[in-house]
Design goal:
Keywords: DNA damage, DNA repair, Nucleus. Belongs to the DNA mismatch repair MutL/HexB family. One of its GO terms (cellular component) is MutLalpha complex. One of its GO terms (biological process) is mismatch repair. The chain is of the alpha+beta class. The protein has two domains: about 190 residues, 2-Layer Sandwich (Heat Shock Protein 90); about 120 residues, Ribosomal Protein S5, domain 2 (2-Layer Sandwich), CATH 3.30.230.10. Helix content is about 30%, strand content about 25%. It is built from nine helices and 16 strands. Strands 1, 2, 3, 4, 5, 6, 7, 8 and 9 form a nine-stranded mixed β-sheet that branches. A five-stranded mixed β-sheet has the order 10-11-14-12-13, with helices on both faces. Strands 15-16 form a two-stranded antiparallel sheet. Helix 1 crosses helix 3 and helix 8 packs parallel to helix 9. The longest helix has 28 residues. The structure holds adenosine-5'-diphosphate and magnesium ion. The site of magnesium ion has 5 residues, from helix 2.
């Protein structure tokens, strides 16, 4: 047999490596919005406003009133692996911020055009700089600015033709962005959020800071959802298992929907957990056989060392210690709450 010559292995250019990695972190416009909003929340903002053009492909603009970015930091702001949130690996064990990788802004500059306007406390004016491929394109220009930071991402995926085409044909990215902001709005009740199409006077999500979770759910998801919710709580301080606390709202038997809505925060991070979602759906199907798919808002708090936040480049999933125990506990709380509420209802209908 004739052995073929092995192909030569070569080192990829940084620019190629970075563009490949960026496509993974920023999968669609909504992923960029999530990163930007998380940065705004990490910056201690009390107000986060989003404007979007063409489903986010033409423009994503996120403005906040957070602590801003130092002038000296602007040159490296969008380089890969530059962050103010982590300095050594061990910090990850106790990380409270949502960001830690220093990759999001960099990624955006590899797949779009990024412009940052920011002002820090006590400054008379702000600065504006634009970035491409990780690099600041010009000296920061002094400009008028109100408190905080505004980040604009334009022409997302301009250099990824296939992805741009696929996304152009799907009209649902704006819907995904609205959905994302709705989720943040009902968890971060001390922050006001808005989301609108660029140029539109009406916003599609508009929440005001409130002390009541129920009020914010009513504002964001509407009365028809809010009036059919049951409060749930669970905690486990048994030293044999993990410490955990959960609280939230779940829909009762009067709620009608074709699809499950599950808004899940673990240690204040918006995440997905399909195992938990399925486990709750099973309880609904068994307890309220005629009821529709549930609406669930749930916030779970665990010791930070029990959560591995670093399992996915988009940080969409986290992995938990003792997930089975936690799921069982939540299932039993959900089941008993649903039974109680269903019995009350049957009783009310009879009388
Ligand atoms: P990470 O959030 O993982 O640190 P990012 O690329 O998302 O990485 O952001 C890099 C850094 O830029 C952050 O660590 C933070 O210091 C700064 N930054 C980004 N967005 C904002 C913002 N809206 N307000 C203040 N600082 C910000
Ligand atoms: Mg970030």
């Amino acid at each position: 047999t004739i052995l073929k010559e092995p192909p030569k292995i070569q080192r990829l250019d940084d620019s190629v490596v970075n563009r490949i990695a960026a496509g993974e972190v920023i999968q669609r416009p909504v992923s960029a919005v999530k990163e930007l909003v998380e940065n705004s929340l990490d910056a201690g903002s009390t107000s986060v406003n989003v404007a979007v053009k063409d489903g986010g492909l033409k423009l994503i603009q996120v403005s906040d009133d957070g602590h801003g970015i130092r002038y000296e930091d602007l040159p490296i702001l969008c380089e890969r692996h530059t962050t103010s949130k982590l300095s050594k690996y061990e910090d990850l064990l106790s990380i409270k911020s949502m960001g830690f990788r220093g990759e999001a802004l960099a990624s955006m500059t590899y797949v779009g055009h990024v412009m940052v306007t920011t002002i820090t406390k006590g400054q008379l004016h702000g600065y504006r700089a634009s970035y491409r491929d990780g690099v600041m394109e010009n000296e920061p220009k002094a400009c008028a600015a109100v408190k905080g930071t505004q980040i604009m991402v334009e022409n997302l995926f301009y250099n990824m033709i296939a992805r741009r085409k696929t996304l152009q044909n799907s009209s649902d990215d704006y819907t995904k962005i609205v959905d994302l902001l709705s989720r943040f709005a009902i968890h971060y009740t001390n922050v006001s959020f808005s989301c609108r199409k660029h140029g539109a006077s009406r916003s599609d999500v508009h929440s005001i800071a409130t002390s009541s979770r129920m009020d914010s759910i009513r504002t964001v998801y509407g009365v028809s959802v809010a009036r059919n919710l049951i409060k749930i709580e669970a905690s486990d301080n048994d030293s044999s298992t993990s410490l955990f606390a959960m609280d939230g709202f779940i829909s009762n038997s009067n709620y009608v929907a074709k699809k499950t809505t599950m808004v899940l925060f673990i240690n204040d991070r918006l995440v997905e957990c399909s195992a938990l979602k399925r486990a709750i759906e099973i309880v609904y199907a068994a307890t309220l056989p005629k009821a529709s798919k549930p609406f669930i808002y749930m916030s779970i708090v665990l010791p930070p060392e029990h959560v591995d936040v670093n399992v996915h480049p988009t940080k969409r999933e986290v992995s938990l210690l003792n997930l089975e125990v936690i799921i069982e506990k939540i299932q039993s709380v959900v089941e008993s709450k649903l039974r109680d509420s269903d019995e009350t209802r049957t009783f009310q209908e009879q009388t």
